[in-house]
Amino acid sequence: MTFQDFNFDEKLLEGLYSMGYSKPTPIQAQAIPLIQTNKDLIACAQTGTGKTTAFLLPIIDKIIKLPDEKRRLNTLIISPTRELATQIDNQVEGLGYFTGVSSISIYGGGDGNAWNQQKKALEEGADIIIATPGRLIAILQMGAINFSHLQHLILDEADRMLDMGFFDDIIKIIKYIPAKRQTLMFSATMPPKIRKLAHSILVNPEQLNISISKPSEGILQQAYLVYDTQKIKLLTHILKEGNYGSVIIFASTKESVKKLDQELHRIGMKTKAFHSDLEQKEREEIMREFKSKTLQILIGTDILSRGIDVEGISLVVNFNTPHDPEDYVHRIGRTARAETTGTAITFINDKDQRKFAAIEELIEKEIPKLSLPAGMGDAPNYQPEKRVSSGDFHKKKTYHKKKPGFVKKG
Ligand code: AMP
Fold it and tell me: How is 259-301 classified by DSSP, letter by letter?
């Protein structure tokens, strides 16, 4: 299948090729024809599969074909975070570059200037609105936006939105938009609460399941069993020996992100910390530096694991084992975007072994546990069944019980 098969407008194809996409990814091949038939769709697709382009292409194509008076405020895309909203907005800009289709992203936390810009774009009526739920509700309640001509509603990363407690907000938003519309819902996972949401807002949806929470094949996944006291030394060794390009290091809390940033600075590494305490401007500046490769190493919480779409990230390090197995998939999905390759290394301390077993269970794959480099001392044994879990453990109650203690020399 090629992009020519979708009968897209020439100007859209031009934008598509200028982004360097030569052929549709599996989610694009399957979702685009369905979206073109105006049906509702619920698609289970993880980040990194090209899902954003899968919904943007047919939507932009439909908008191009509309008369001017029907284009304004035609499509609403709801995104869990402002970072994802900005990424989607950038993709519309890239894909729609030659088409004249306009978009605006709307999210909280910006300065007065950003808000004035958002308001102006709304008044002028951008074709595609990309919004985070909280800010959107505030605007709807102010009566600053009239969606009576809206034709498409898209919920991106719906599972994340529900995890962030946006269920009621989404239901509220629905009340402000026409009942007769096409609704598309994308989610990396399909827990029952997502099915419940789908049931309330989609009509006879088509269903697509591209792959349930499986990391892309291009990611080389590895892990180290390690005591907390050994982690910094191990991380430094990996960064110095590995000759990696852009690197993201994930830590569990913003406090641990800040601490890790300080520790790495102390030993002469140039890193930056990305977390929710930063102003929007500061976050944007850090992302700019990271994208332009001026900044090589970015340290962040899970806020970075969704929607950050930076090309050429060759290494993701989980300084701690992610609490939720699905977060693991999102975190390591920052590398090996689309059809490239990358490495994801997870540190497992003795308390996090059960969490790691749950990850292996979810992805149905045993991840090689590498030996610690020489001189670092002994590592804990991998015995997830015997370990007491740290903190409030992931809700799943079954653990991977096969082949414990698999250690590969590395
Ligand atoms: P997403 O799953 O939407 O987060 O997209 C993951 C990455 O794939 C992004 O960097 C896109 O720019 C890229 N991408 C989307 N569609 C294609 C395609 N057909 N060919 C190559 N890369 C793509």
Answer: HHHHHHHHTT--EEEE-TTS-HHHHHHHHHHHHTTS--EEEE-
